[in-house]
Amino acid sequence: MEIRAYLPLLLLMGFVIMNAVMMLGLSHLTMRSRPTAVKQSAYESGIPPLGDARERFSVKFYLVAMLFIIFDIETVFMIPWASHYRQLSCAVPLSNGLCPAGNTSFFGLGEMLVFMLILFVGLAYVWKKGALQWD
Amino acid sequence: MHYDLALPSGLMAALVPEIIVVSGAMLLLLWAVWRPESDVHQRNVAIGAAGVTLLAAAAVVYYMVSDASSGPGVIAVDRFRWASDLLFLLATLIAIALSSDFSKREGITTAESHVLILLATSGMMLLAAARDLIILFLGIELMSISVYVLAGLYRRSARASEAALKYFLLGAFSTGFLLYGIALVYGAAGSTNFTDIGRVVSERGFGALPMLQIGLALLVVGFAFKIGAAPFHMWTPDVYEGAPTPYTAYMAAGVKAAAFAAFIRVWLEAFPGTIEFGPPYKVLWWLAVATMVIGNVVALAQKNVKRLLAYSSIAHAGYILVGVLVATPLGASAFLFYLVAYTLATMGAFAVVIALEEVGERNQNVQDYAGLWRVRPWLAIAMAVFMLALLGFPIAGGMGFFAKWYILQAALDRSQFYLSVYLVLTSVVSAGYYLSVVMVMFMRPRAEGAPLPSRVPRATGIVIAATAVVLLVFGIFPSPVLRFARDNTITIAPPSAAASPRAGALVPAANSH
Fold it and tell me: CATH for A2-129?
């Protein structure tokens, strides 16, 4: 059945699990444990830790992070659009990956322009609302 | 007019009402933020939003009159969609009017609430149109996310923030169920299109596709959450109580109606005939009974009017589920009639709650309404009409009586005797709390030193008067609304045809006369 099509996926999953088990297991078997205070400390890019990680920080970071995520995710939409642009700008199905002459359509371009316009309205709103201002 | 949905231009043309709402909302959003916040500006944006709503309604009426039809595609172009759209736009118009008055009283000067209502409405309209699970998901998300924000818009109120967070977390969770169901249905049927799924279901049989069964079960969970059916109703009272009252009204009427409209289309088009036999039918049967019983019984114990109306809306979801469950043209038109009556009565009741609230959302308990008859007789009469309409009382309850009558008739028509018995018995229970509100207003003396209720704001007053009058007038002459419901119902293939291969697969978009 169609289940066979999932075989490579299953192999990949098996490989990943085996890899993880092997890396952890082998290092666990071969390691010698000589803990020191420095080795036990939390790794923070090689700099000695300054304090507790659970500190309070400004809620403004949250807003900026949210805005970043929203606009970032929306731009991700452009990648599938770009990879299908040839078909989207053609009114009939492609033949040999090319659009038969005289069938150019502005559908793909128009859709993206509409999408960008909506995105722009969002940006204009956020800007005017003052959400991009730090103070 | 016939629309070819395979062409981008045809699809665009069939989506004009939605496009009007969305582009209107975007323009209003920019306008809302371009001027400094003030009460006057908030009102102006509300008027603009009402204008957009009316424009969209005009477009919908045009499609309805021109008898638009379409080929197969991702959206439906049929009369059920236009009728549902009109219902949503009515709820939107009322919500905008109430929201504007509410903002003025509570000193909320942000104008975005009206824009968010419009965006949620566009999601609802997509839900009524969806003939593809992806469009359905898009509509649900567009509607829900806007409503999450509306619930938490009143930032000074801790209760509203709590309600918004609860609604958001549970809503996101239920969307997960819905999405998982969509994925499984797609995996089993090989398509997200209702028509194609329906064809697979009637060709291979529902029983032979276990993945499809699990998918449908998860879809039902997702929908049951959105319509607030027991046992997925737990969020409803908290969110309805905490959210600002106009948005509660909008949620109780619009959001619920939209989820129902999508549900009934999925049920009848993508799973034709499944309602006739087997587990899905039983599941829905129990869901309906549990919803009616829990909603009505728990409502008896409520002191807060908004909470009481929340439980009442749960109970009504149960009644409407009965209309969905019988799956006949009669059931579908009873469903539509019920939604009209329910929307009017619920919106009206919440409008009265808004009129009687004081700044800071106080005065929401049933006891605060004591002796209302002495100080605000018209308001008391209107509230009595809404309560009796929700109860389904003849004459004084207006359309509410016929709404329940038609649901009951549709159920009895299909020999659903137990379901009818539950419906009638729980309705009797509901008299306990609806009539107690009426009794408190008319028979209890006003509390010592209770201040006079403040003046009813204009738009709220118009909404209360209009909904009460419409309920009463169409309660005495129900035939126009009944004709509206009958003409715009979803057409359902007869059950015998659905069981045989091919025949019931595609539910034709044309009207049945």
Answer: 1.20.58.1610
